[in-house]
Specification:
about 270 residues, alpha/beta, Carbamate kinase, 8-stranded mixed β-sheet, 14 strands, about 35% helix, globular
Length: about 270
Amino acid sequence: MMAHKPLLYIVKLGGGPIDQPEALEAFLWSFANLALQQDTTQPIYTLLVHGGGKLATELGSKLGIAQQIHEGRRITDSETLKVVTMVYAGYVNKTIVASLQAKGCNALGLTGTDANLITAQQRAALPIDYGFVGDPTSVNTILLDTLFKQAITPIIAPITHNKLGQLLNTNADTIAQTLAVALSSHYSVELVYTFEKNGVLADTNNPESVISTIDKATYQTLKEKEIIHSGMLPKLDNAFTALEAGVASVRIGKADALLSLVKGQAGTTLTHA
């Protein structure tokens, strides 16, 4: 009988919970519980990817650095790159790691630059010049395999590099999807996007209007009708890319419902069909 692949939960944390200490703490308790669970029939591993966009925007404003967003993605000039590196790789990453350590989860904070974890190339300037924004080109899966086997949970901030000394800001949803795809050949990967909403909403003014299941055709229709727009676009684009590349499942929902999300009991589930 063929052995099951180890189960790997890749969780992306974004949106409001990062800005709210109580919400972040509640999420991290759930994540620690997920990371520490055991299964005698199948190894279980976890990995967390986080953003921190609102904090970066607030700090940039205080420093007099104008922030520009196009279709949910940050345009990153040289000064903004300094800000996002300080916020993502510094304050947010280490706050999360310290909190998880206090909960018994042996976490390690990383960026894409560390041990060549995630290399990237700077995005072409046409049709939109995003500045110092990177699109991933490789993942050091051997490093991640080693950490998992040592019961270390990687906590990854979305800063990458081009192997020529240039830091690059990379969309955290894209980081999560890239890692999920790269690891899917050796793990049964379940990708979970968490943020402040209950899932993908049919009506942004009604938090209960969660669309429970979305396939690729439905997504195109919802996008054309502008029911799905702005920051949700890169999230869903990445989700469907992951599914098409072999990731076992993708779910989107509220950060405080993480344990229900991984069971498929909350949020929005994306499907191939």
